[in-house]
Amino acid sequence: MSESLADVIEVAGSELRFLRRLVGDAGENAWERLLEWFIDDWFRLDVLGLENIPADGPAVLVSNHSGAWGLDAFVLQKVLLRSLRRRLHVLAAPFVFRLPVLGPYAARKGGVPIDARAAMKRLGDGELVAVFPEGVAGLEKPFRDRYRLQPFSPGFAVAALHTGAPIVPVAVIGAEESSPKLGELPALARFLDLPYFPLTSPFPLPAKWLVSIGEPIEPPERPSGFGERSAAARRLCAEVQDTVQDMVERERERRDSLLR
Questions:
Q1: Closest CA to 52 of 242, 183, 260, 213
Q2: What is the largest CA-CA distance in the chain?
Q3: pLDDT given for residue 7 in this prediction
Q4: What number of CA atoms fall less than 13 Å from residue 55's CA on the CB side?
């Protein structure tokens, strides 16, 4: 009797795992189709400067992070995969991989938890890595502060100095208007174990999106001393942040002119 019960439990467990995988695959496929619809029809996204991304070899794509829901990471990864046929490893906060559907999807598409060593390994393998150095702070900006970049974390600059990979600045315009942050719901964030939960439109608004990719910035030669390397990374980080901020301001005007 106990053996029969154990067999039943084992079969039931196998069927449950199969059903979970089936539901998970269906959810990921549905999200991919929705993402394509967002890009092509809802956001009417334009991409400029694809030729600035190396056809082969490593590069660090550094982008502003905006919009309350953080859709820009998924959009950028999807657009570049379609356009370049190159895998893009997006560094994401650990909580992203805990999200239902989106977490497994991000991992399957090359998402990597934020870790300088993981980024360096992929750059050393000649791959593309995308980072959003503002982190969650970029998403937490109120709508009145849209497109004002928050301080960049210098980890990407350290990785570029270590590997010699060029840095490609990226400006994403449109996310702030499609998911404007109007406030926060801290109690819900604590309940869901998230860094924050925005008060915003539950479904993205149909704002026009524009992705602009700038010319690569070559890192300087890596200094030998720790202090010199740290200072060089901070200078490189500041240079890239200024570049991305200038691009954001310029591309906002370009995007607005397209709508007139």
A1: 213
A2: 76
A3: 47
A4: 1
